[in-house]
Structure formats: structure tokens, C-alpha cells
Amino acid sequence: MRGILIDTLVELLDRRVVWVYAVVTVIAIFVIVATSSANLQIQGEEIDLSNMNDQLGNPLMMGVNAFAYVLVFLSVMASAGSIPGMLVKGRAEYYLSQPLPRTSLIMRKLLSLWLVYSGLVVSCVAVIWVVAGIVLGLFGHGLLWLLLIHILSLAIWLCVTACAGVVAGSAAMSMMAAFVVWVFQRILVFHEEIAAFADSKPIEYTVTGLYHLFPKTGQMYDLVETLVSGRPADWMPLYSSLLLATVLLSVTCRIFEHKSY
Amino acid sequence: MRKGDIVALDGVSLSVTEGEIFALLGPNGAGKTTLLRAVLGITSITSGSATVRGIPPSDSRSRVGVGYLPENHRFPGHLTGLGLLELTGRMHRLDRSQLDQRSEELLELTGMSRWSDMKLRKYSKGMLQRIGLAQALMPDPDLLFLDEPTDGVDPVGRADIRQVMTRVREEGKTIVLNSHLLSEVETVADRVAILSRGRLMKVATVEELTSRASQYEIEAEFGNTLITVPDEVGKLVALSSRRLVVELVDPIRINDLIDNIRMKRIAIRTVKPLKVTLEQSFLEAVAGDNEEASQ
């Protein structure tokens, strides 16, 4: 495990992806600083940021949640090429001739990607959390919930890109698969509205079926806000997305185990 | 074994003995690389079977203590030479002290110590072959698969790599070598398998492939003397004023021929079995297959 983990970390540093995270984090810090010096008004009444927790739930949580969402998106895009890159002609021979079962190899790589990119996301979110706390004087609770949900969401996306990467053997296909799934899952959130609009049973069954099949990471991010605000949470998006990730992972391992290179 | 509609290997049956250097020869597309990849479990076998020390390639234990230098490899460019050796070592479950010791030894052996901290993407082809050989040797393998190990390497580097192969064999380890360089194979290999269009044409020792057991060459001052070879001895293949080539019925009949020449008071300089180069032998084997294919 350590060998592949170090390999993944070195690859990440070599590709200078870290700089993109740094730039995004710096931009977020500027936004926080700018917000701290702005006079916020709601319906003409100036508000005190330190009282926002009581007035609007937790705006800090909402901001950091959006920031983490961007970081997870970046991580999915940045890591999408890693598995296909490992399996290009000339390199696949190197990895596959090692005394590791193929399932173990792909799982180690996935786990390494997850750990490395989760580490990046957690570090950046933690920096923003601390900066926002100091600058705005807001120390909301629920950071752990936020990190947990986003890290699980990253794992789900990695399973999607890994599956596409192993099946298609291309980084571009892997990224496109992630993007298509992302677009569809955002559309399918409105499955009830689509079914009502179409007014057709087959369409209703199809969109409802697809809704349950596709990951629901968008709703998982909403779950963070629900959890933090203390409202009753609907865990279905998390459970069903994790179930899909498990199925995709099994399919990926099965295909990889039998694929000729 | 198939790749789409193409039969990549057809009826190939061979075994490699422990401690030998076994070479695979064949024209491009003969199936040499496919054979190595099948044995290493990289490519699936559609029919038939292969084992490495009795274990099928689908079982990763078959690759324990096995080193492999692939042809046209693309090692991860983000790693340094040392990083590649450490990654390989870790995947072979070497501990920290073994990693350090083996890396240092192999970098020294392959002449790569100076460039061990350089990224692989900056390496020249020759340097990549050297570090590739080092990574193949990293697990201290009992069995080493080398696919075109001297490809892109300068003559000095080729000699170094040959020396490494000889040294590995002297340690009692087995090497399966795939090379286009017949002179290289002739120098280092013990046995050779010739493949053509996915089929095994011949398996023999280098000695067997390069000697014409029944043909002898005699160098002497024949001048204009008429030399005849009786039918019971053999038949004359070539004769010049200084050289005679004869194909004997039985190698023991060379004595009769020598007696015959001595009786004519001709000074004999050398008598030796006729040798051909491995290249000639290889071309003959492959030509036979090509003729068959064209019919």
C-alpha cells in the first residue's frame, strides 16, 4: 500500500495540482476578508455578522460547504486520469507484472487517490474554517459533518471515474463520465417535476429509477446543512450513493481482473 | 491464444530450465512479446495453459521473485530512478533496509548512481533501459524476463547489459530473453526458441543451431590437386585451392578423408566442423515457415 500511496502523492506533487488548490483557497480567503469589511444589509437593515448564526442558520457553513464542493470537483477532475494513466501501454506491463492481485492493485490505487485528495480537501477546508473564524468571528459547529460528507462524496466520484477509466482506458472518457453523471444527477433531483410534466407512467418509472440509480452527491451537500442546523436528516441520498459506489467498485474490479493488456 | 480475430500464439509448447538463459527469436509479430505477457498474466490466455514454477499466471504468487523489463516501457515519468526502484521494491514487499541496499547495489551495477535523483521523463532511451533493468532486478529475482533489454542502448551499454545477464546466470538464476539482436543472443543464450507467425519453429541450444554436425571444413594447400570424396565417405560441397567443405555420411569418416589428403602429400592447416551464424540458422527456420505460408 505504501508504495502506491507514495507514487500517487509524488504524481500529485509533480503535476503541480496543489497550486490550483492553493489559488482557490487564497481566493476564498480574499472573499472572506472582503465580506468582513462589507456592510451587509437585509431589507435595508444593517446586520451584525456575529449574530448571523442565529438569524440565518449558519452562513459560514454554507460558504465552506460551497468551497469544499469546488475542491471535490477539482479533485475528481485532477484524479480522473490517474488510473487510465497507470494502464497505458508500456506502463500497464510494469504494474501488472508485480506480485499483486489485480483487485488489490486497483484498490490500493483508489484508496491512495482518495487519501491523497481527501488530505488536500481537508487541509484547504481547515484553513478556510480557521481564517473565516478569525476574520468573521464565526466559529460554527459541524466541520466534521461537512468533511465527512465531502470525503465520502469524493470516494463516490472516484469510483465513477475508476470504473470509466478501467472500461474505456482513457482519462478523457473518465472525466466525461464523471461530468455526465454529475449533470444527470443534478437533473434527476427534479424527477418528480419531470414525471409530472411528462404525465406519462413509463417516463415516471424511468426517471424515478434513474434517480435512485444515480449518485446523489448534490443532495449529500444539502445533507450537511441539514445536519448542522439540527433538522431531521434524510440519509437516503448518502446510502444509495454509497451503494452505487460499491456496485461500481465491484464491477471495476471484476472487469480489471479479466482484462487483457 | 487470440487477439481479436488474430491467433497470436498457436500450439506453442515449451519449457525453460532453471539456471539457463533462454532466448526467444522471431520476426516482428511472431508472438514473442505476447508469450512473455501471457506468462506474466498481463494478457489473458484464451486456450491452453502456462505456469511459472507450477503456478498459473492468473495467480499473483506466480510473479513473486520474478523481474520483468517490458519492451517499449513507459515507467511513470514523475518518479526518479531511485523512486522507481523503491516503488518496485515496495510492491515486492522489501523492507526499508533491503530497499536501501538493493537500490544502491543496482544503481551501481547499471551505472545509474549519478542520475538516481533525476526524473525518469528526463532520461534518455539508454538510461531508461538501464534503470528498467535495475527495477527488474530489484526483487533479486530467480526468474528474469527481459524484452529487448538492449533496445536503444549504445554498444558500451549493450556490453554492460550482457555482462549483467551473464552475472545473473552465474548466480543460478533463469533469464528469458527476447531480443532482435541475434549476435547478442548467440553470445549469452544457452537455448533458443524460434517463433514465426505465432508458431514455434524450433527449440535448440545455440550450439545445435550454429553447427552443421555433418559438415566439415578443411583448410589446406590443395593447389590444383584433384580431390575426390568417395560416396561411402560423403559428398563434396565446396572446393577451392585452400579450402574444402564436405558433408559426411558419418562424422567418423573425417579420418578417411584426412588420410586421403595426407596420402596426396598435402599440408593440412585446420580441420573443423562447419559453423553457421545464428542469423543464418534463424533465417533458414523462418524462411521455411514463410514458404509454407505462401503456398
The biggest sheet of chain B amounts to: 6 strands, mixed
- Report Rg of chain B: 24 Å
* Rg for CA atoms of chain A: 21 Å
Average pLDDT reading of chain B: 89
| Overall strand count of chain A | 2
Structural class of chain B: alpha/beta
Strand order of the largest sheet of chain A: 1-2
Helix content estimate of chain B: 25-40%
- Counting DSSP E segments of at least 2 residues, the number of strands of chain B comes to 12
Distance between the termini of chain B: 24 Å
The coarse silhouette of chain A is: globular
CATH topology of the largest domain in chain B: Rossmann fold
CATH superfamily of the largest domain in chain B: P-loop containing nucleotide triphosphate hydrolases
CATH class of the largest domain in chain B: Alpha Beta
Query: Which chain pair has the greatest contact?
Result: A-B, 29 and 34 residues
**Given the C-alpha coordinates, what overall shape of chain B results?**
elongated
